[in-house]
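tool_call: predict_structure(chain=1)
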Amino acid sequence: MQLSTFTDYTMRTLVYLGLQQGKLVTIASIAKAYEISENHLMKVVYQLGQGGYVETVRGKGGGLRLAREASSINIGELIRQTEGNVSLLECLDGESTCCIQSACKLQDILREAQDAMYAVLSRYTLADLLRQNEPLALIFMNKNAKKPELGQS
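tool_result:
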């Protein structure tokens, strides 16, 4: 299973905001830090706002920040929300055109694997991703450092 770009950008946004420790940041700054599309990120931020994960402040000096503590943002719950009802195979949802579904043992194995994946993800919060993560913060600091223009030292 591969997570969607939407889920990927959701996680990246929350990590970035978590590292900012409550400071307001712009969508443009997040997009620049990750070198991703601002337009796509706007959709992600909108959904995060609707879900109560981020707070947005409009106007001059506005931006966004986490709306709740990183320790209350469960990774498994978040991924289930952003991915929707996605199963490894359609038969795991009960709706399938497969002629062997009634006797197939693979669906039980895949359902167990899918449940195990979400069980592992649900053991972690955003705070776990941020804990002792100075190397990640340094990456963003170095990306935001002004690079000298050509011909200057």
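agent: Strands lie at 54-57, 63-66. Proceeding to next step.
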